[in-house]
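Obj: model holo form, ligand = zinc ion.
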Amino acid sequence: MSVKVTVWNEFRHEKDPNHPCGRVYPKGIHGCIADFLNQNDGIEARTATLDEPEHGLTDEVLEDTDVLTWWGHMAHHEVSDAVVDKIQQRVLNGMGLILLHSAHFSKIFRRMMGTSCGLRWRELADEHERVWCVDPSHPVAEGLGECFVVPHTEMYGEHFDIPDPDATVFISWYKGGEVFRSGCCWHRGKGKIFYFSPGHETFPIYKQEEVQKVITNAVLWAAPAKNGVFPMTGSVHAKVPPEPYEK
Ligand code: ZN
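Output (holo C-alpha cells):
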C-alpha cells in the first residue's frame, strides 16, 4: 500500500511576477516536490495550499494523509490556529510531518517543538552549502554519501533554537564557518517529525537529486508504523483486568 503524502505550500512567492520563485518553480514548489515524490512507486502525493478553503487541509484530507510536508515563508501568520490544532492532533496520532527550509518558523513546527525555532541566516546568491551525513545508518540517509554540495543556497546557522533532536542526520557547513543541524528527527506521540533546511525559494534546490532523495527517504521513514491500535486518551482506565501474560 502506498504512503499517502500531502505536499503543502503557502504558494505566494510563485504568484508574484516580480519574485524569481515562479521562474524557478513554474508549477510551484509544491508541484515540484509532489512530482519527484510521485516517481517513487511506494508514494502517492497530492498538494494543498494556503489559499484553498481550510488551507486544503480538511478533516477528510488530513485523515487520508500518512505524511504531511510543509513549505512556508512569508505567510506563517495566515495559517489558522484551528488547522494547526488539527495537524498537531494528527501528528500525535501517527501522521508524519516533514518541515522544509523556512518552515522552521511555521506555527506547526513551533507548536511541535515548544521553542522559538530561531536561527542565524544570511542570503547570498553565490554561496554553497556542504551537507554532511552524521548518521550513516539512519533511514533518511539511505543511498547518500558522506556529504553533498548544494551549489547555491541561503545560509542557516547555529544557534538553532530547537529541543535536542532524537536523531541528527545531517549537519551543514558554510564558507562563513557557520554550521547548522540541517536534518533532524523527533518523535511526538506516535508521530515522526523531520526538519530539513535546504530549499530556499530563489534557487532550484528541490530539483537536486540528493535533496529529492533525502525528502523521499524522510517521507518513507515518517510514514505511520502499522503496529496496531494504542489508545490516545490521556487517562486510560482499564475497567477489566487483562488476562495475565503468564499463569
Ligand atoms: Zn530562504
